[in-house]
Write the structure tokens for this entry.
Amino acid sequence: MLRSKLTLFAAALLVFLALLLLPLALDNTPVSICGSGAAAQEGDPCAAQNATIEAYQVVAAQATVDKANHKATVQALEALCNAGPTPVPGLPFQDDFAANTKGWFETETQYTAVRIEQGQLFVGAQEFWFMAALAPELRLRDFYAEATMTTVYEESVFVGFAVGNAEVSPARYHLILAGSDWNENEQDFTWYVRLYLWDGTTLTVQDQAEYAPFWQAGEPVRIALEASGGQYTLFVKGRATQTYEFASLGEQVGLVVYAPDNALNEIRYAYFDNLNIAQPAAR
């Protein structure tokens, strides 16, 4: 009788344990050792785990911010590189001299002349004189100016560009010119590129270099002057000649004719056409 009761009790205990453990056996969800409400106690592995997770979250957030900042920096640099030079008021300055629409100062004296005629800009000067026709309203430090020049003279004439200041009295300029002059040593005419300084009273040669003849009488010639960072390079027929470095006396630029000594004591002149003045990088 007692053995039967023990057998029944053992069977009932096995059934009870089976019912208790069966749900756990069927649940595949891993059980975390850290409950959602685990307290951050010293030495508690849950606190260390949560601290590590929070640290990774901070690093991830900072990485996102850094990536956004890097992208913005790259975009700003690309925009700056693609923007080109800062626009200068009045540029490009272009004139075909069909009429005096730009406001050129036209003058006629015993020694000099500037006028627009037959679709060209006429600039002339008597022996030992020069004449600068300044581009109206422009004030520039860096530029690229070019024009087509034609003269009937091969001897005793210089043409080119002036940079300086005509708003003071007397006006002061640097002249960067190409042309020919009598050479006493050679007893013949020699072609030069010259840098002149007009200080308001005296015209003096600052530097010169000899060249082969640049043009023939009546030949249209493209001349240009590039000014960049205080350096001035004269071009004739697309060829760079001399580069001069000096502190400009002003921000005005113009076209020049200079007449050195000539036996006939007559005016020298040139016609200019298709003037274009732009920023150096824009040419």
Q: What stands out?
A: The CA atoms of residues 159 and 257 lie 5 Å apart.
